[in-house]
Amino acid sequence: MELRDVESDITEILFSEEQIQGRLAELAREIERDYEGKDVLIIAVLKGAVMVLSDLVRELKFHAHIDFMAVSSYGSSTKSSGVVRIVKDLDAEIAGRHVLIVEDIIDSGLTLNWLIGNLESRGPASIEVVAMFRKPEAIKEPVDVKYVGYDIPNAFVVGYGLDYNEDYRNVRGLAVLSPHVYGGEDPHA
Ligand code: 5GP
Ligand code: MG
Ligand code: MG
């Protein structure tokens, strides 16, 4: 089946796949430098971060171990409440290890803050975050993110792993979803 034409569903392409790959390569060089000689466990939160994770680890020149968590936000399925339930926990023990959390996008920061707190209680050697996208205007809880791909405007975006109703994840670049698709109000605001 062909990927449905999504041009009429989006208002703007913010970053092409090539731009995203180029920026990820720059971040990978920083991460290689910062973690030289260390054992790193790279953790992605399903599902949005799978594209960033798979592109990042293949760009890295060191042996990166990976693991996954799935969480669900209490309350509305699209709005972040910061109260989170673990749907799938890590397979690995992280005590004493260097943990790098890979995120698709940081919006309010509530989910990520909860996750950092949860992982910190397990006694890792360190925790840092790499986020492909961040919306500085949407932040409700400040969160310390060491590696940021791009800061973007406060709009609802899809592609590169990010969905609307589970759709658009496999759009290759990052695009602003047209409000006519979701009927006006930003689904995540
Ligand atoms: P936060 O807790 O930072 O508000 O949001 C966490 C999650 O909400 C992100 O990992 C992502 O899954 C989703 N999210 C936030 N903003 C957007 C957006 O603009 N588009 C999409 N598709 N998902 C978003
Ligand atoms: Mg996420
Ligand atoms: Mg989503």
What does the model show?
- It catalyses: GMP + diphosphate = guanine + 5-phospho-alpha-D-ribose 1-diphosphate; IMP + diphosphate = hypoxanthine + 5-phospho-alpha-D-ribose 1-diphosphate.
- InterPro entries: HGPRT, Hxn_phspho_trans, PRTase-like, PRTase_dom.
- Its EC number is 2.4.2.8.
- It is found in: Cytoplasm.
- The protein has 189 residues and is α/β, with parallel strands linked by helices.
- It has a domain at 20-150: 3-Layer(aba) Sandwich (Rossmann fold).
- Helices cover 23% and strands 30% of the residues.
- β2, α2 and β3 (65-73) form a beta-alpha-beta unit.
- α1 (17-34) crosses α2 (50-59).
- The longest helix is centred in the first third of the chain and has 18 residues, at 17-34.
- One magnesium ion (MG) is lined by residues 48, 163.
